[in-house]
Amino acid sequence: MQAFLGDEYAAFETAFQQPRVNSLRLNLQKLEPPELMQHFPNLDPVPWCETGFYVPFEARAGSHVLHALGAYYVQEASAMAVAQILEPVPGERVLDLCAAPGGKSTHLASLMHGQGLLVSNEIVPSRARILAENLERLGLPGVIMNEDPARLATAWGSYFDRILIDAPCSGEGMFRKNPDAMLEWSEASVLTCANRQTEILKSAAQLLKPGGTMVYSTCTFSSEENENVIERFLEDYKEFELIDIFDEQNATDWGFDRGRDRDGFTARLWAHKLRGEGHFIAKLRKISGEDTSTELGFEAFAQPFKAKLERKSWLEFQKDYGVPNGNFAVFRGEVQLIAQQTPPLETLKVVRAGVPMAEVKLGRLEPHHALSHWFPRDMPDVPVLDLELDDPRVQTFLRGETIHAEGAAGWVIVRVLGLGLAWGKRVGSTIKNHYPKHLRDSRINFED
Ligand SMILES: C[S@@+](CC[C@H](N)C(=O)[O-])C[C@H]1O[C@@H](n2cnc3c(N)ncnc32)[C@H](O)[C@@H]1O
C-alpha cells in the first residue's frame, strides 16, 4: 500500500486508528426520512445515496424494532455507492450474482420500485437463506438462487440488462470494520480471490445482453483483485468497454478517487478520503455480441393451482387477506407471487421463485410470514392488530411469546407504526405467536 499510495500512505494508515462509521439505508416503502429522524435524531446524509444516513453507534440501529419491521437495512456507507452506480431502471431484468447477505440486492430492488425482474444469487446455501430473509424483511420482490454463476450462464444465456458482481474478495477494505478479516488474509488468498473473480466475470459476460451494463465491485485494496482483474477481462472480452464512472456521477465531489486502470474510469473509495470503508467499483458495457438469451420461463413453470389446490380457495384467500392481483404459482408447497419475466428455473437450485404469500398445509392455505412484510404501510382490508412502539407487548411478541388483545378470531398481522411484524392467530383474547422461530430474540444485525 505504501508503494501504491506514496505520499498519501500516512493518512491511509491513520484512518485505521479512527473508529469506523455506522450507517443505514432507509426503505422508502416503509418509512420517510422525517419519520426516521423522529426515532434517530442525529442522522447525517450519505452524500452518494439519497436514502443513506450515518447513524451513531449508540443508537443501536441493528437492534431497534424498526429494523425488525424492515424500515431500513444497516449498510456500510461505501457499499451504498454500488447499486447507485449500476443504476437499474424499473422494468429491467437485473441479476445480482454474489448477493448475500443482501445489502446491494435490497438496494437494487428498492431502486426498481417493484417493476421488472431481480434475480439474487448466492453460492453458499446458509448465506442464500439469510439473503431471502433480508429481502423478505424489507418486503421486496426477487428470485433467490443458490447456484454457481457458471450454471446460471449455461441455463439462461444473455438474459439480463444489468448485472452486479460484488465479488468475494480478500476484504482488505473491511479490516477496520472487522479486524478478524485480517487473520484470513494472505498473499496466496489475494491470488485465489483474483482467479475466482475472473471466473465469475466470465459467467457474467455470458449472462449480459448485448448493450447491457454491469458493475464489478470489491471491498479490497489490492490491484491484483481490482484493476488487474478488469484489465485482464477487457483483454479477453473485446466486446466490453469500461464506462467512466466520474462522467456519469458526481463522484469527485463525493471524495471518490479515480482507479489505476488505463483510463482512470474505475472508482476507488478510501476511508481516509470519505466517511466509509474501502471499495473498488468498475462499470462496463457490452457493446456487441450475440444474443443467446433463453426463452421466458414463467409460462412453462407457472401452473397455478391445477393439481393440489383449487383456484377458488386461493381467490378466497386473496379476498380475505387483501392480496392484490398478480401472477401466482404454487412452488414447493407455497403460493408465490412470480415476476412476469422470471427465467426457467427447473434445472437449478432455487431458494425462492418469487414472494411467498401462503403455505399450503393439509390442503388449506395459511398466510406466509413474507406476506406480513409485503403489504405497504397502513394497508386497509387486512386483519391487523396495531400496537404502539412503546407497548410492552411488542417486545413480548418479538421474543416469540403469546400476547393478549380482544378482537375477532383468526389470523391478524401484528403491526407497529402501521408496519407488519408477523402474523398472529387469535383465539379468544390470546394471540398465538407466528413470528418465525429463527428470527425471535436474535434480531441480528445482518450488515455487509
Ligand atoms: C462481498 S460478498 C457479497 C455482499 C453482498 N453483495 C451484499 O451487498 O450484501 C460476496 C459473496 O460472494 C459469495 N461467493 C463466494 N464464492 C463465490 C462464487 N464462486 N461465485 C459466486 N459467489 C460467490 C460469497 O459467499 C459472498 O456471499
Characterization of this structure:
27% of the residues lie in helices and 24% in strands. Residues 443-448 have low confidence and may be disordered. Helix 5 packs across helix 6 (103-111), helix 8 runs parallel beside helix 9 (187-207) and helix 9 (187-207) packs across helix 10. A hairpin with an 8-residue loop joins strand 11 and strand 12 (267-269). It has helices at residues 2-5, 9-15, 33-39, 65-68, 80-86, 103-111, 125-137, 149-156, 187-207, 227-236, 245-248, 298-301, 311-321, 369-374, 392-398, and strands at 23-26, 44-45, 52-54, 72-74, 93-96, 117-121, 143-145, 160-166, 208-218, 240-243, 257-258, 267-269, 279-286, 328-331, 334-337, 350-352, 355-361, 364-367, 384-387, 403-404, 410-416, 419-427, 430-433. It binds S-adenosylmethionine (SAM).
Walk me through the topology.
Elements: H1 2-5, H2 9-15, E1 23-26, H3 33-39, E2 44-45, E3 52-54, H4 65-68, E4 72-74, H5 80-86, E5 93-96, H6 103-111, E6 117-121, H7 125-137, E7 143-145, H8 149-156, E8 160-166, H9 187-207, E9 208-218, H10 227-236, E10 240-243, H11 245-248, E11 257-258, E12 267-269, E13 279-286, H12 298-301, H13 311-321, E14 328-331, E15 334-337, E16 350-352, E17 355-361, E18 364-367, H14 369-374, E19 384-387, H15 392-398, E20 403-404, E21 410-416, E22 419-427, E23 430-433
Parallel strand pairs: 5-6, 5-8, 6-7, 8-9, 19-21
Antiparallel strand pairs: 1-3, 1-4, 2-3, 7-16, 9-13, 10-13, 11-12, 12-13, 14-15, 15-17, 17-18, 20-23, 21-22, 22-23
Helix pairs in contact: 5-6, 8-9, 9-10
